[in-house]
Amino acid sequence: MSLLQIKNLEVEIEGKKVLDGLNFNIEKGEIVALLGPNGSGKSTLAKVIAGDLRFNLKSGEILFNKKNISKLIPEKRVQEGIALAFQNPPEIEGLKMDYFLNSIAQVKEYFRENKLLNRDVNKGFSGGEKKISELMQLTSLNLKLVILDEIDSGLDIKKTEEVASIIKKYFIDKGVAVLIITHHGDILDLLKPMRTNIIIDGKIVGRDEDYKNVLKTIKKYGYEKCRKCTKFLSDR
Fold first, then answer.
1. What is the set of domains in the chain, with CATH numbers?
2. With helix as H, strand as E and coil as C, how does the chain read?
3. Per-residue pLDDT tens for 123-135?
């Protein structure tokens, strides 16, 4: 049964079309990867699902648990069970991680001894620390779908493994659906998505259940030709 279903979505920002008749779905508990070149619409799709108000929905609809959430504000979408881990989260000086997390929920035991708790939210954090901070915050929510936008960006293999371990323990193992947006293969090798989608020019143009095949064909042919090597999806 589809948890998230997007039908014929057309989205603009500042008069520019950024999603063009896009169709996309995620099943309950499914791990889905989304890949595409720069400017293809990956992060835009993530933000639109999360309810970013800067984007203008021209047509189409977003269904979550069969409910049309297209007009819901971000806070209401979080209440429905959707959350987004940002690629570049903001720094919040003067607000300790421990206080911040305990103000919304008890800090999970996994993080209890984490040194990040004694520091201001994301202030002076390394790239890997910011990614872990984002995940710490997401674990405090009651989620059905977590969207991870470039969660592995800039991480070495050790930090990537740590991030993947948190994702498995607090989301995948608990049946939370996961949408992974990435350029790299390391995180996919660790999380093993059930389906990988390719987005180009604001449309989903291909998919394959074998993420390794997708990565291999992108590397060999590039994004513009990879639709010839994957299972083609017509926008219907």
1. 2-93+125-232 (3.40.50.300)
2. CEEEEEEEEEEEECCEEEEEEEEEEEECCCEEEEECCCCCCHHHHHHHHHCCCCCEEEEEEEEECCEECCCCCHHHHHHHCEEEECCCCCCEEEEEHHHHHHHHCCCCHHHCCCHHHHCEECCCCCHHHHHHHHHHHHCCCCCCEEEEECCCCCCCHHHHHHHHHHHHHHCHHHCCEEEEECCCCHHHHHHCCCEEEEEECCEEEEEECCHHHHHHHHHHHCHHHHCCCCEECCCC
3. 667 777 778 878 8
